[in-house]
Amino acid sequence: MDSGNSSDVLPEDLSASVESFFETAPPLRDSSLTAQKLQAFIDRNSKPSEDGRPVRVVCITSGGTTVPLEQRCVRYIDNFSSGHRGAASTEYFVKAGYAVIFLHRRGSCQPYCHRLPEDALLDLFEVGEDSSIQVCQSHSAVVKKAIRDYRTAVERGQLLRLPFTTIFEYLQLLRIIAISMKQLGPYGMFYLAAAVSDFYVPWESMAKHKIQSSSGPMDMRLSQVPKMLSVLRKDWAPMAFCISFKLETDADILLQKAEIAMKKYQMHIVVANLLATYKREVTVVTDNGTIDVRKQGEDSDVEDELIKILIDRHCKHLEQSGI
Ligand code: 9Z3
């Protein structure tokens, strides 16, 4: 069984900063409804599938977290991410039979929509002579496929979407999801593609109202967001298969930073990508080497190949866990 070092206790200072982050965060709205939906989804997917094996469940995080600067928030710091990678990856995991908890930034790219025009929704439709609304012929094949695939995923109970905006919402939801997924043991997977803020303003030290520019230039000190990846591995879901992403702009440091992250947070895999090329290539970093993954053609997604590799590694993880 893969207990690895995942049962190690957290360093005291990390435990204290994690505790303080959650104690002082503004409480989640609708948290009991979310917990109920999540439990129902996990219970349904914990039952063995047709081949007698439990369904594998992946939590995909997607989009960037915001850091509010005011409690009644007018201004915030954002993290770069359109949510395209998380949305496309969701489709490939569902196709492979996984149940997906899609933890996404409100308003970011959604599964089954990533091939539709993003900024010209109305270009998809035309009004007929009898005033009926139809999808334009030029887009009808892609729209039909998207609707069919989406409905199938929902009808089979393979997709649960949970939205976040702020770093506070994101981390509270991730904790609830991870703790619920603990019961899945190694059948659970985390695919952490969301771009998560490293710095934030603690709620109690945040301005209550809109910061006034008439007060002159502003100095602001940001606190460090506690690294929850270690907590996820050690406490929340120690048997789950964990994949995180590393984004850099400097190719010279990318792989080194990915390897450091893998060891430091005990990730099973880190997917390394560069801002300039992340849509066409990524490198899968494992503890026994790296695999370069490239988009195969104009109409393909780099996620197609990437997800195949990750599922293969997840199968090996299940074997190593004695399953
Ligand atoms: C990624 O590196 C994702 O691949 C992208 C996807 C954000 C580049 P899009 O949503 O982009 O398709 O537009 N995500 C992880 C970014 C991140 O914040 N990683 C942390 C780090 O690098 C570790 S959790 O330190």
Structural write-up:
The protein is of the alpha/beta class and 323 residues long. 36% of the residues lie in helices and 20% in strands. It contains eight helices and 14 strands. The chain has helices at residues 12-24, 31-46, 84-95, 137-155, 167-181, 228-236, 251-264, 302-320, and strands at 57-62, 67-68, 76-77, 99-105, 125-127, 133-135, 159-164, 188-192, 199-200, 223-224, 241-248, 269-274, 281-286, 289-294. The strands form four sheets. The chain has an eight-stranded mixed β-sheet, with helices on both faces. The protein has a two-stranded antiparallel ribbon with strand order 2-3. A two-stranded antiparallel sheet has the order 5-6. β13 and β14 form a beta hairpin. It is globular. The N and C termini lie close together (9 Å). Ligand 9Z3 binds next to α3 and β11.
